[in-house]
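Why do we care about 3D structure at all? Because function follows from shape, and shape follows, mostly, from sequence. That is the central idea of this module. The next example makes it concrete: a single protein chain, its amino acid sequence, and then its structure expressed as tokens.
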Amino acid sequence: MSVRVADPEPGIRLVTIDRPERRNALDRTTYAALTAAFEAAGADGRVGAVVLTGAGGCFTAGNDLTDFQDLETGGDSPGLTFLKALRACPKPVVAAIEGHAVGIGTTLLLHCDLAYAGDGARFRLPFTALGLSPEGGSSYLLPMVAGAKRAAELLMLGEPFTAADAASAGLVNAAVPAGAALETALAKARALAALPRVSIAATKRALRRGHDDSVARAMAEEAEVFHALRRGPDAQAAFAAFLRR
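And the structure:
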């Protein structure tokens, strides 16, 4: 299985991306498993908070580019389906990031309620270098949390950045000592799960209410452009070059 689901203590659901041999890159099977995990957590009355992390000291290297060479299209992509399930999850979601968080591995953090990154974590939004464009609502949400100029820098230049940079840009709550991200996330999840769940759910809805329609529209519009570019010659050449390394 490419996703492990566990309940390490009462009230906490731990979802772990588990493809360490691929730096936890997300293929169709993994996206489907993540979607199912978040839908199940949202419907489970025993769950008070969800923690999302990656196995082997790596969060995720982003999309598995072997899937991107497939020119087939039609309907929501597996990645978009997962992001919708993540965003729709009524339980608070806490991300724990160590190692690499690339592409959707960074943009998905915009849909988590809390996020903590180890000091050694490295983030990147490499869409333009791959002949692509922003996805996952990032063109809307990243300027909101980071400011327009910082968002343009991160999305246009696509350069790697640190956990401290991610914290200053609002992508994570804090940078913590390397190796401590999961421990920190579990502690926050424990605190959330101990609070009245109806209050937490109402607060999560209130925090998102003013942006839900705009985020949904941005995700749909981005997906249309993203997949048009994905099928184009620049992107296909970039994928082929990456896979030849």
